[in-house]
Amino acid sequence: MVALAFQILFPLLVIYAAITDLFTMTIPNRISLLLVGGFAGSAVLVGLAPYDLLLHAACGLSVLAVGFIMFAFGWIGGGDAKLAAATALWIGSEQLAEYILTAALCGGVLTLAILSLRSVPLPAFALGWDWLTRLHDRRSGVPYGVALAGAALLVYPTTAFWKAAF
To answer: Fewer CB near the last or first residue (10 Å), C or N of the chain?
Structure first.
């Protein structure tokens, strides 16, 4: 039962990250830290072998390195890089490519939706919603944490780590 609680922690945290990013354009560090800590606890509870633990860690560190490079070029935010890395830690090596491809596709759809939103004026009743006016602003970025969370929720149930808990 405790392992199941840890497995539910992952979806809840990535959903929280998506909502936070959508409304504030920020993903707090505590979310990524909770994901890393939750993975460590869950890995112990499901009996993840040391070799598999190293593979998961390598996935997280690799995505973190690439994410920091993308951040340095201004392509993504720092919170996005950390969220992607923490998520890759849970996803593992077998589904990492699927996660990255799904995140890219979700990000493309999200970007097109936001560009469409930005091409029309906001209705008067929505002008008081700070998060929506920020999202509507052409100088604003894209809350890519939403795409990362969507991809994570789509891919996670197919991972060996998820299946190990059940």
So the answer is: N
